[in-house]
Hints:
Layout: E1 17-18, E2 24-28, E3 31-36, E4 39-44, E5 50-54, E6 57-61, H1 67-89, E7 91-98, E8 103-108, E9 111-115, E10 123-126, E11 131-136, E12 139-144, H2 147-160, E13 170-173, H3 188-193
Amino acid sequence: MEKKQVLKLSRVGKKPIIIPAGVQVSITGSEVKVKGPKGELKFAFNDKIKVSVKETEVLVETTHNDAKVRALHGLTRALINNMIIGTTQEFKKALELQGVGYRATMKSDKELELVGIFSSHPVKFEVPAGVKLLIEKNIITITGIDKYLVGETAARIRKIRPPEPYQGTGIRYVGEYIRRKVGKAVTGTAAATGGGKK
C-alpha cells in the first residue's frame, strides 16, 4: 500500500493574519495590496503560494512540500504581516552620532548632511522616497511604512562612518553594543627610556 505524503507547512506561514480596522487588503492575481491610514504597499508573491482574504483575516497557503516553497510560505506570510503593521503604525530605526563635533542636519526633505565625521568635508546623503528622517540633537530617526526600506536606509547611513572599535566614535544604532578593543599599552621600560632600542 502506497504511503500518503504528509504536507509539511511552515509554522509561521499557516497562522492567519488579522486585518485591523481601517486596513484594506486586496488580491489581484499574484499581487497583494495593503492600504491603511499611513499609506499603501504592494507585493508580488510566488505562484506556488496562495493568498486569500476571508472576512477579517489573510490566509497564506501552499500545496507544495518542497523545502524552498515552505520557506517562501513563511516569508510571504511575514512580509504581508509587515505590510499591515507598516500601513497602520510605521516602522522606526534610530541612529546615534558619537564623536566630538559630529552633527546632522536636514538641508531639505530629501538631503541629509553629516558634519564633523570627516575633518575635510561634510557628507551629503540622499534620502530615498518612502522614508522620513527626524533629527534631535545627535539622534537620527528613520520612519516609513516599508520595513525593508527603513532598515536599508539606516544601514546605509551607518555605513558612512561605522563605529570604530577603540574609541567607539562613529554612527551606531541606538542601544547597539560596540565591542571595544584595547589599544597597545606602552611598557614601563619603554616609557621610562623614551622608546625601545635605538
